[in-house]
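Subject: Protein record for review, amino acid sequence with backbone structure tokens
Why sent: The fold of this protein is of interest and is recorded here as tokens.
Notation: Tokens come from a learned vocabulary of local backbone shapes, not from coordinates.
Attached in line: The record itself begins immediately under this heading.
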Amino acid sequence: MSSVLYDLPGPVARRRSRIGSVVGGVVVVGLVVLVLWRLQDRGHFEGDKWEPFEDPDTWNAIRDGVRRTLQAAVVGIALALVLGILLAVGRLSERSVVRWPATVVVEFFRAVPLLMLIFFFFLAFPDLGSFGALVLGLTLYNGAVLAEIFRAGILAVPRGQSEAAYSLGLGKRQVMQQVLVPQAVRAMLPALISQCVVVLKDTSLGYVITYDELLRTGRLIYDNYFNIIPTVIVITVIYVSINASLSALANLVERRTRVRTGGAPVVHAPVDAGAAV
């Protein structure tokens, strides 16, 4: 039995795949055990290294770091969504006087590393403060990426949909609002949520401009207690837990989207030339 694009694997291929999975799993587990053994051998798991996490003040500091991280992420995501919609509309405009400036803005901010943007706004506009510089950098960079997601989602709707709407006498605005956007939104949701995960992780770049988010909070803890490995483990677990929750939401939305759209492919974030550092 085969699909349109490729032949389904036979018994030999499936057996090789299972063997590869087992070998890969054994290698990964072995590496984890080796790392843990080395850390244990160097005393990173001794009780005194974990004592700071028995202090309520430490967890209060971590809680405040999580709150500031989420605050910057939520504000950055909200502003980036608004900017992304405006830029996408500009790029889809038939008027070159609107389309070209929007294209230049999108391509420029997608190409500039996010860390450079944050540094620039922090140094050039000190009145913004670390929070303002971080949010502005997140907004411009991710707004440009989201603009491409919005544009790709609208262009992914079959052309026959708009042609049929025009044949019924609908105007361009009506076609966009009533036909294209509702279908595009379902396809864009997984990519949008995935980009929200990226924004949340990118808030850690606020560390370099002394914004007291979760990563900087962890740095302050291990600077005071000299327990870098336990602190890194705790902070990593928190980041992974938050991002895993958002990723699970993205997967749920994607599954529901595929059911509603009859298995049609969803729109993924475009590969950009200036990935965040």
Summary: Residues 55 and 202 are 29 Å apart (CA to CA).
